[in-house]
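Reviewer 2 asked us to include a model.

Predict the structure of this chain.
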Amino acid sequence: MSPLGCRAALLALALSACASQLEPEAVRWTAAASATVETASAGPDVALGREIATRVCSRCHALEGEGPSPHPAAPAFPLLARRLPGDVLLPRLEEGIRASHPDMPEVRLAPAEIDSFLAFWSTL
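Predicted model (structure tokens):
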């Protein structure tokens, strides 16, 4: 399996865990490997970025409007996007978003997912 395929498979496994239950341990997710390969060749995909945000983040964060979010302490994404531009978020996504509190899992995305996530982030 190619390195990109391996990363995609690992990310898919991790993010699926996040969708079912938040845990303090690291959670990793990715889109299906075929979507990753497609996105890598076609460039960032806003729809895929929104799908990633929905699967990984919407359990706690409101993705639209200013809230309230499902988790009372989680800021809505549009508010976060105003405070955290994509160029500042990029290195954090590349390293993996680390839990800043016990309810938030660590999230790691493959490069194609990061690009698509940031394409979605830029629409907020």
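The chain has six helices and no strands. The helical segments are 3-20, 33-42, 46-56, 77-83, 86-95, 111-121. We have added this to the supplementary material.
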